[in-house]
Amino acid sequence: MRVTKSVATAILAAAALLLVSACSGEPLSTREKGTLGGGALGAGTGAIIGAAVGAPGAGAAIGGTLGAGTGFLVGNALQNGEVAQRRLRSQVSMEQREIQSQDREIQSLKRNQETE
Question: Which domain holds residue 32?
Fold first, then answer.
């Protein structure tokens, strides 16, 4: 029991150190938010379930790992969707500018044709 608690504490400390060192002062991306949220939720749930069987540290470590993995997958999918939306908005904006340019050219040609 004592060894398991020490191992779980070491795993949690390593995970916390990795988490803190990974933050560069930039705002968290959607992927990072998903990973962090999933890890926290998984660790909390794992600790509760682990406490029921007498191993809250191991439960937290296992739950945190699984939660972080799941959170990463969800956050990654959301972030990929955001990137696709930004690309689409950019493309639509570029096409709107092109349409406006062509519209101005058409109007100019019409004016020139009327004066001839």
Answer: 2-115
